[in-house]
Amino acid sequence: MSATDALRWRNVTVVPAVHGRLAFALEVRRRMLETRFAHVAVELPASLRDVVVAGIERLPTIHVAVWRKAIDWAAEAETTFDATEEQAERQHFYVPIDPCDAMIEAVRIARRERSEIHFIDAEIDDFESRRMVVPDAHAIHGLGLERWSEALAEAIDAIEPTPQDEVRERHMAASLRLIAEAAGDRPVLFVCGLAHWRRVQGHLERSGDRFHEGEGVDVGAVQLLRVHPLSLIHVLGEVPYVAYLWERHRRGISPDRFDAVAAIRDLVLRAKSTFERRHADSLEQPTLPALRACFTYLRKLVVYQRRLLPDTYLLTLAAKATVGNDFAVRLLELANRYPPNRDRGDSFQMTADLGRFADDDTVQPMASRTPGEASEVRPLELVRRPRRRDARTWRRGWNPHAHCSWPPEDVAIENFRDHVSRRAHAAMAANQSRTEPFTASLKDGIAIRETLRDPDGAIHVREDPVVAGDVGALVLIFEEDDDGTRFPWRVTWYAEHAEESTLAFYATDPLDDLVGPGIARIRYGGCLFLFPPLAIPDVWEDLRFERARRPSERLLLAALAWSRERFVAFAGPRPPSPEIRAEAARLEKHLIYLPLGSFSPHVLERMRRAHVLNDGSVRGYASRFIG
Hints:
The protein is an alpha/beta fold. Helices cover 38% and strands 18% of the residues.
């Protein structure tokens, strides 16, 4: 039997699909636009027909059909002692009206084409929901549905069917036979779950039809509820924003086929544009090199997961690792955005396999009547901005006269200070390096460049003198602040122990960005490190530095005045002014300049962000609000 014949039976064309995956919906759409099917059958019970059709009519707003299994408690009490807890976990079911689901797409097109629609699944009261692990469905665009299904045939046959599967598949085979006979020579389309078709096909070929006489779902107990925006990620099989782009494409007039890869690219680029508008002052920008690194890392993550397209988790993970936390948060928010479901009113909420009804505030276990691909919940630490009303409450309790640092950030910034100091020291040593023709000693090694350039072919050697002394102070300037409006908070902090530096800085106002009770986030404009720590007067109140024209010059003057070593490192967007260089010469200090552009923007952005705690007691719970 050929791969094409495996998905046909008499006049019936079959699309075995993974529920909720867009690739199968696109395949159904392609086939239904190529062939006008007289009958369309789907793997859903007839009792759900009216509510599913009603949900389809409300698209693009996504709804779920939710119902509770009716339990005869008197009968249950006769058969078991404790009939409440275990059975309650099996009595809540839902069907998502997912625009990316192949069955929903088939019914949508069939209603437009005036085709006969049949819901042919058995009426099962206590449905057993099982999800599958399958290769990425995006492969069917290159392989074709027939070859893709044929490749999975052996794995599907290895899945042991349950007694309920046997009942349902016999019922679907019997129903499909009647539909095929009634259609005569006219074509019939059957859309079912990937795991069922081969066994349904076996029943069709062996005949022996057997219908299941079940009572089905009480239609009056079914609720059609709009999905809460934050729950779409748990209800839909695709990324919500990709589902939105597909719905928009579907309603348009473009002759081009929808491209899921282009949709992912559109998602990232839109997140980039909105991030640049909201965080224009951030050094952690999604630049083209950063996005190139993001897509490269994303591709490796996708290959490692043996997929072709990333899910929301992989998208967010790649964004955080290559650009930063804020861009990852923005990308996650946009990925979960589905504008037609913007309203958060009386709607259905779901988290993983737990759902909440609109008329019942209790959380209940849920089972999907159309289980799709298996997935897992994976943790990823991200820090979001707090709600405005929470920030207002925390602002009222803020004590402006008591503050301290967050110890993990102290360790990170001290390591960065040590790294910059060693780099400045190495730059000073490189500046004093000299070369000379080889005579009797190789000294510190052969100078390759000078040797190759010598027209006489003489060998040159390099001498790297030892630079005595260490870097006693470091000034790091991220941004200038001439008028004092962007970075109004100016403080001198003293070390709590011998491994910390004395720190003077100018930064944003802590009250502008409260992330927790007694926890504020600031952005340094510039800072001064003195190590080993030294008790000095407040840099911002010291009258000796009043001649400074901007806060960066004040920090440089303080560094030159208080450094115990003759070397002072300075990293900033532009070199120090002639007045500062003259002051360094007067004090017999050597100022080493490192361009700010020589450091990674990602590292600089991470270093310039810090958290301020209102007092030492906040350190006990600050980790809950600081990512």
